[in-house]
Amino acid sequence: MSILIKNIKQLIQVHENNVLIVKGKDMKKLPIIENAYLYIQDDTIVEFGTMDFCEGIDAETVIDATGKIVLPSWCDSHTHIVYAGNRVSEFVDRINGLSYTEIANRGGGILNSAKKLQNTSEDELYKQSVKRLNEMISMGTGAVEIKTGYGLTVEAELKMLKVIRRIKRDSLARIAPTLLAAHAIPSEYRQDKTSYVNKIVKELIPKASALRIAKYIDVFCEEGYFSVEDTKQILEAGKKHGFIPKIHVNQFNILGGVALGVEHNALSVDHLEELNTDDIKALKNSDTMPVALPGCSYFLGIPYTPARQIIDAGLPLAIATDYNPGSSPSGNMNFVVSSACIKLKMTPEEAINAATINGAYAMGFSNMYGSVTRGKKANIIITKPMDSYAEIPYAFGHNPIDTVIINGQLWT
Ligand SMILES: N=CN[C@@H](CCC(=O)O)C(=O)O
Ligand SMILES: [Zn+2]
Fold first, then answer.
1. How many other C-beta atoms are found inside a 10 Å radius of the C-beta of residue 195?
2. Where are the beta strands (DSSP E) in 224-333?
3. Could you say which of 150, 207, 253, 306 is the most buried, measured as most Cβ atoms within 10 Å of its Cβ?
4. At a CB cut-off of 8 Å and minimum separation 6, what does 119 contact?
5. Local mean pLDDT, 10-residue blocks, the chain (412 residues)
6. pLDDT value at position 140?
7. Ligand 1, closest atom to CA 220?
């Protein structure tokens, strides 16, 4: 199977060499070829260049992209798309004045989703989750991290992992599975958090490891959830079983979790709505990717991650949807890219770098995804006609996507 896309107005995020991460000032650079072609064979990007060099190239499928932009698919490095039902009633409660924390303290929030998930069969959970993933693919996302964390019992967390395994096997999207058993303290452990942490460390992590599905271990390091000490214990237990740390940190409070993540070589530290100079210092000279989740700030009305502070300090930044039922019920990366420009004051170039190559890095996939590079996987977006790629974030809330190619196949 071969696809030739020709007469491309702008082919963007083109790298001759296999870049893995883009940091600081370099995030403002977005390499482009004007009036370009792109040639795909099977699931791989094989060739590209200006139209002057397209003569003689033929393919089974030829797409005329006159007036359109072509770019690598979005890489969404932080989602919780395996969940049951929704939390619409809490959305209405928040409009009527309750805070996210007040709802959680009443047994709503993550515990509400856990109750629903525990009572949902694996098949039904798979069905609901795949529907979300397919909608994300049609909006241009080609690689997705998926977390557990709505099980909160050994049995239900393993059920979530099995659902993620089925999705990974069946979908054309590239999936990064993460074990997030430390997402909230189950009500039966409210007075005895230590026993839940011990259960995760002694029982759940070994059982999850034996299933060989999850690659990453995550913890919600936050007041009322897991302390820095709990987080350390869980990350260390995870690392012993070969999991790589990725943590939820600084969403509401700064506890010191960023430095802890860096010390444990976390692949990413996510949220960072609150951030101080010690956090920035800790991230410098590390391999840890900071990840901003503007959809969560938008939905909950909490501060936006200070992206300018992060990038201007010479650090990299990725952006992701945080797609989940409680704090960000949307998998639309186009909206996330717009929000990054409008609310995080990132330039379109920075936002696109954050949503492609740096998102891929935050999943450990940037050797194969996140840029238009020969040999990389053919996950490609063709936009509707537009004058420049800056129109993708500019017209917020619109659908800029015309055609999606995922793993070398046209998505219909
Ligand atoms: N902050 C922790 N976890 C999710 C929210 C989960 C929920 O409310 O269901 C997040 O990343 O925003
Ligand atoms: Zn999250």
1. 11
2. 244-249, 268-271, 289-292, 318-319
3. 150
4. 84
5. 97 96 98 98 98 95 98 98 97 95 92 97 98 98 98 98 98 98 96 97 98 98 97 98 98 98 98 98 97 98 98 98 98 98 98 98 98 98 97 96 98 95
6. 98
7. 2
Whether the Cβ atoms of residue 381 and residue 84 lie closer than 8 Å to each other: no
312 is in an annotated binding site: no
Ligand 1, atom 8, residue with closest C-alpha: 326
Q: Which amino acid type is present at position 285?
A: N
**Cα distances (Å, whole numbers) of residue 111 to 102, 103, 150, 279:** 13, 10, 7, 30
- Ranges of beta strands (E only) in 222-305 are 244-249, 268-271, 289-292
Q: Global pTM?
A: 0.98
Pick the atom of ligand 1 nearest to 110's CA: 9
Q: Is 324 annotated as a binding residue?
A: yes
* Burial track 291-311 (b if 16+ CB lie within 10 A, e otherwise): bbbbbbbbbbebebbbbeebb
* Residues around the ion ligand 2 (C-beta < 5 A): 322
Number of residues written out for the chain:
412
With CA atoms as reference, report the closest residue to 336 among 324, 319, 323, 349: 319
- Tell me the C-alpha distance between 252 and 384, whole Å: 38
Distance from the CA of 265 to the center of ligand 1, in angstroms? 23
Given this model, what pLDDT does residue 107 score? Answer: 86
Residues with CB under 6 A from ligand 1: 109-110, 113, 220, 248, 251, 296, 322, 324-327
Alpha carbon of 328 to ligand 1 centroid (Å): 8
Ligand 1 atom with the smallest distance to the CA of 78 is 11
Residues 6+ apart with CB under 8 A from 333: 74, 76, 136, 139, 140, 141, 320, 321, 355
Distance CA 151, CA 311 (A): 36
Token code pair at residue 10: 């702008």
CB 129 within 8 A of CB 79: no
For each of the domains in the chain, give its residue range(s) and CATH number, in order of start: 2-72+369-411 (2.30.40.10), 75-361 (3.20.20.140)
